[in-house]
Design brief:
The chain is α/β, with parallel strands linked by helices and 632 residues long. The chain contains 20 helices and 30 strands. The structure holds 5'-O-[(S)-ethoxy(hydroxy)phosphoryl]adenosine.
């Protein structure tokens, strides 16, 4: 069984060991997994190339660690509880034994359909157990999964499929999220019009929606599953063989395919799950993230299954059929650990406390938060109303690129401070730097958050573009990994993340690059140029404010604004729709989005010097709006 820190003193002792002797520390943790062959070298690294290898020489399969090794003791224990969108529908419980068989069958389906070790497979599925089965089946045969959140548009799918040349895509007919219907297969059909690498599309029949099946390309999950054997021996993978790609937005260009590898990710996912949440045998763990984001990968699928835990997959939304849905879910499944996002907490806060009436939340022991800074008010509301003042909140800071949690309290062990992610986990060596890259020493300071030393779960590359990996994360401050986040270290040495310091907007915990959004908006026929900035938003954390330049006089701005929003939905996905749009008159067209953004930010900060005469440069009404705090 993986080691679990039990006291704050032990945390300090383990932390010190992990910094002084990282190889000793991480070799000790890795002993608790099943390896086909043990490693020769625990760690080899430099941040200049960058080159990072953990457990080099080892061979393993992550699914043997998630499934095979549990069968002797957990065959009849529930691995996944599926809670459907509609609470009137039956939930599903899948045991470790059943999950094991399903994964082996689907691994055989992949092989029978031409997928080999190293091939990329795209997964575009709702929150159903088959999403986890598909991921695990890929990992079992050594194929690299690339999961795309089922809220992305056809164009976003084809961009991602083309970037990593996926050979196969796995999808479903469709699903409902709340009252909204998503025709996934239709979206995939659209996406596949502009891809050439996909040979097969496997469709899971989830809701019996009518779909078009293209002969020779599209096949049904159930037909294929009926044809293959239930036996499958996991492929032995090298420690640094790729496990998955997950696309994420950055400050420039198209989304990047963040690449994670096998052994280090496994060790880190399992260790952080067990320690941060202080997981106990028999606990029911519920993370409300979507499988399409890294939180779903690490803390719905891999982390819990590696620990032999019971994990919940929830298909719906917190407000359907009413704002008590999360609390019903906790009551129904007797959830012990509940992990959600500040945006969900804030949106539920608005409904008041009556929704808790009659709901028994006494099973809860630990609460978690992830994705964006949690404001103090939301923290206290969560603590008082959900945790009834008794459950520690682990405010977990991490990123797609980090693979797992880096800064967080250990539940019930680290003394808490509302809205603080508190202290680094073992193996995580943080530092704050100023603009010039000088380390900011001492406490009561603020700077850009960097990391000095590799940890096993960190990304190894950007798929197909290692140079982009280097420039994005390792070039701003040579020798350091730069997170892109600003951070305070208070008098007690506690860390509080203040938010992105690059051109990335965090909307409801979803990362969206301003450059990517501007490109999407600029593709709209009426728009000449645009600049997108974030502004504080009560529910979403940050809202998207788009300033656009149009060529001709627009009679009905509202129609244009709706049209631009619909256009963004088509190009990226609904979650990226701008909250506010305003036509800005007079900004010279030759100015790039980046320069316009700088100008708009300066005005927002009340600094109108050096930007020319604002009355001709920018519509005065917009200047007033900006000055009044519409943007940050
Ligand atoms: C932000 C999500 C404050 C941060 C796991 C980071 C947070 C970005 C927190 C990564 C937190 C995540 N407090 N900010 N507890 N957790 N963030 O890649 O800006 O979707 O850089 O990974 O979310 O988002 P990503």
């Amino acid at each position: 069984m993986l080691p679990q820190i039990k006291t704050f003193d032990e945390y300090k002792e383990r932390y010190n060991l992990s910094i002084e002797q990282p190889r000793v520390f991480w070799a000790g943790i890795a002993e608790h997994f099943q390896w086909t062959k043990k490693w020769d070298t625990v760690l080899d690294w430099n941040f200049a190339e960058p080159k990072i290898t953990w457990y080099q020489g080892a061979q393993l399969n992550i699914t043997e660690n998630c499934l095979d090794r549990h069968i002797a003791t957990r065959e009849n224990q529930t691995a996944i509880i599926w809670e459907p969108n509609d609470p009137k529908e039956q939930s599903r419980s899948i045991t470790y034994g059943q999950l094991f068989i399903s994964v082996k069958i689907f691994a055989n389906v992949l092989v029978a359909n031409g997928v080999k070790k190293g091939d990329r497979v795209c997964i575009y599925l709702p929150m159903i157990p088959e999403a986890a089965i598909a991921m695990l089946a890929c990992a079992r045969i050594g194929a690299v999964h690339s999961v795309i959140f089922a809220g992305f548009s056809a164009q976003s799918i084809s961009d991602r499929v083309n970037d990593s040349k996926c050979k196969m895509i796995i999808t479903a007919d469709g699903f409902y999220r709340g009252e909204k219907k998503f025709d996934l297969k239709r979206i995939v059909d659209d996406a596949l019009k502009s891809t050439s690498s996909i040979e097969k599309c496997i469709v899971f029949n989830h809701r019996n929606f009518p779909v078009n099946m293209e002969a020779g390309r599209d096949i049904w999950w159930h037909d294929e599953a009926a044809k293959v054997s239930v036996e499958h021996i996991a492929q032995a993978m090298d420690a640094e063989d790729p496990l998955f790609i997950l696309y994420t937005s950055g400050s420039t260009g198209k989304p990047k395919g963040v690449l994670h590898t096998t052994a280090g990710y496994m060790v880190y996912a399992a260790y952080t799950f067990k320690n941060v949440f202080q997981y106990r045998e028999q606990d029911i763990f519920c993370c409300t993230a979507d499988i399409g984001w890294v939180t779903g990968h690490t803390y719905i699928v891999y982390g819990p299954l590696l620990n032999g835990a019971t994990t919940i997959m929830f298909e719906g939304v917190p407000t359907y059929p009413d704002a008590g849905r999360f609390w019903d879910l906790i009551d129904k499944h007797k959830v012990n650990i509940f992990y959600t996002a500040p945006t969900a907490i804030r949106s539920l806060q608005a409904y008041g406390e009556e929704v808790f009436t009659g709901k028994d939340l006494s099973s809860l022991r630990v609460l978690g938060s992830v994705g964006e800074p949690i404001n103090e008010e939301a923290w206290h509301w969560y603590h008082n109303n959900v945790g009834k003042g008794k459950c520690p909140i682990v405010d977990t800071w991490w990123q797609t690129e980090t693979g797992g949690i880096l800064i967080s309290p250990l539940a019930g062990i680290t003394p808490l401070k509302p809205a603080f992610a508190t202290l680094p986990l073992p193996g995580v060596e943080l530092l704050l730097v100023d603009e010039k890259g000088n380390e900011i020493m001492g406490n009561g300071v603020e700077g850009n958050l960097c990391i000095k030393h590799p940890w096993p779960g960190m990304a190894r590359s950007v798929y197909g573009d290692h140079e982009r990996f280097r420039t994005t994360y390792f070039s701003a401050y040579p020798g350091l990994y730069f997170t892109g986040d600003g951070c305070k270290r208070d008098e007690d040495g506690y860390y509080r993340i203040t938010g992105r310091v690059d051109d990335v907007i965090n909307v409801s915990g979803h990362r969206i690059g301003t450059g990517e959004l501007e490109d999407a908006i600029n593709m709209h026929g009426e728009v000449i140029e645009s600049a997108v900035v974030a502004y504080p938003h009560d529910l979403k954390g940050q809202g998207i404010y788009a300033y656009v330049i149009c060529d001709k006089h627009i009679d009905n701005k509202e129609i244009l604004y709706k049209d631009i929003r619909d256009h963004v939905t088509k190009v990226i996905g609904a979650f990226a729709r701008p909250d506010k749009i305003q036509i800005v008159k007079g900004l010279p067209r030759t100015r790039s989005g980046k320069i316009m953004r700088r100008i708009l930010r300066k005005i927002a900060e009340g600094d109108t010097s050096n930007i020319g005469d604002t009355s001709t440069l920018v519509d005065p009404a917009v200047v007033e709006d900006i000055k009044a705090g519409a943007i940050k």
